[in-house]
Amino acid sequence: MNDAHPANPRDPDFISQCNAPLRAGLEADYDALALQLQRRGLKIEPVVQAVADFRVAIPSWGVGTGGTRFARFPGPGEPRDVFDKLEDCAVIHALSGATPKVSLHLPWDQAEPRALRERADELGLGFDAVNSNTFQDQRGQALSYKFGSLTHTDPAVREQAIAHNISCIRIGEALGSKALTLWIADGANFPGQQHLARAFERYLESAAKIYAALPADWRLLIEHKMYEPAFYATVIQDWGSSLMATQTLGPRAFCLIDLGHHAPHVNIEMIVARLIQAGRLGGFHFNDSKYGDDDLDSGSIDPYRLFLIFNELVDAARRNVLPSVAHMIDQSHNITDPIESLIASAIELTRAYAQALIVDRTLLDASQEENDALQATQILKRAFTTDVAPILAMARQARGAAIDPLGLYRCSGYRQEVAKARPTALARRGSGIV
Ligand code: RM4
Ligand code: MN
Ligand code: MN
Q: What are phi and psi of 238, to 5 degrees?
């Protein structure tokens, strides 16, 4: 931390000044790794290039301090509005080099679209998928979502929710987004509360109206979630329901996988493989979890699972069957500085990607054909246990980002500096998921 001389962490000169003393060490580590990979018949440069090209979008809601239904403990210098959020996102991108886009949540991030776009342009940011919110009642809203939105038994509530989604598309168009992410909280807390089939029929009908309002170059991303806030049954509870919905809606509807939206022990990489095979994998909400929708930092609990997911993506790309997949983070940072968590998460995602890129796929194919289970699993382990950190740092440096993003962020004093302009009293208070 540097209270006396705060620096702008987005300033390229500051970044390069902080990188300078780290360069020699990085190059030595990189050369050693390059030799190690060479012995395995792998070239390091294409891996660095692929990692440098990797992109993941930052959720606007992730830069504020999150909370649980018990409490929220606001941190210093929390963003007061969407413009502050954009500024924080720009810091994450400047240091990680991997996050040029922001995924907005509406109406949480409601603002004049032109002003938003202008500010984003100034900061070198763009907009990824827009997220609609029909899981809360907003002030002044005519009808309540207490018993659902797109699947509500009352057609007037459904129309209100459809209209909100269409307005999200229109705002997204003005911002340059190309997708709407649809997640609904609809479902039932008690057996018998809701007719399971009829609720899904109502969903399909409502979603079809939203789908019909998509511009020609847009995609609809449907996010499933096993439970919460509906604890007995959510309408789009699993990838099966999500796949049925996308297949019913049309070719521009895709499934979005939020890693935390599954039961513990579910084999998510298998879901990834199946959705790729069905041509319906549309995107991710990356996070990590121990128990459920914990929204913990990506790679913080089970990095091996994250690697196995990227392993499927890299394999599909090699087979030319990978559709365009939106990478987004969806996390709730309850006890850490959200900027630090998001930087660390972006790094973990590139780590899993780099590890997946160095899997010996020829040998893996052969091991699978020969039913050599031990060798096959060792091939994956060998890639996963390789320290690819020098590849990640080289890729960041190539993009003008930081060799040591977290160290640089702390040394800049950014949080302390913005805390002066963003008094805690003005930040959102109370409890809440995000
Ligand atoms: C949900 C889901 C959505 C997110 C909300 C805030 O559990 O993950 O993607 O928009 O939380
Ligand atoms: Mn999500
Ligand atoms: Mn979630």
A: -150, 175
293 pocket-lining for ligand 1 (C-beta < 6 Å): yes
Write out pLDDT tens, residues 184-209. Answer: 999 999 999 999 999 999 999 999 99
Cβ-Cβ contacts under 8 Å for 189 (sequence gap 6 or more): 230, 231, 232
Quickly state the pLDDT bin for 304 (edges 50, 70, 90): very high
The pTM for the full model equals: 0.97
Is the CB of 211 within 6 Å of ligand 1?
A: no
| pLDDT (average), residues 249-263 | 98
> 285 in ligand 1 pocket by Cβ < 6 Å?
yes
Nearest residue CA, atom 1 of ligand 1?
183
Q: What are phi and psi of 73, to 5 degrees?
A: -115, 95
Q: Which ligand is nearest to the CA of 236?
A: 1
Per the CB < 8 A criterion, the answer to whether 155 and 209 are in contact is no
Task: Give the ligand at the shortest distance from the Cα of 184.
Answer: 1
- Spell out the residues 6+ positions from residue 37 whose beta carbon is closer than 8 angstroms to its own: 43, 44, 47, 358, 386
Crossing angle for the helix pair 303-318 and 373-384, to the nearest 10 degrees: 110
Q: Give the residue, out of 182, 225, 298, 330, with the most ligand 1 atoms within 8 A of its beta carbon, to mutate for a pocket test.
A: 330
Torsion-angle region of 370 (φ positive above 0: left; ψ -120 to 50: alpha; else: beta): alpha
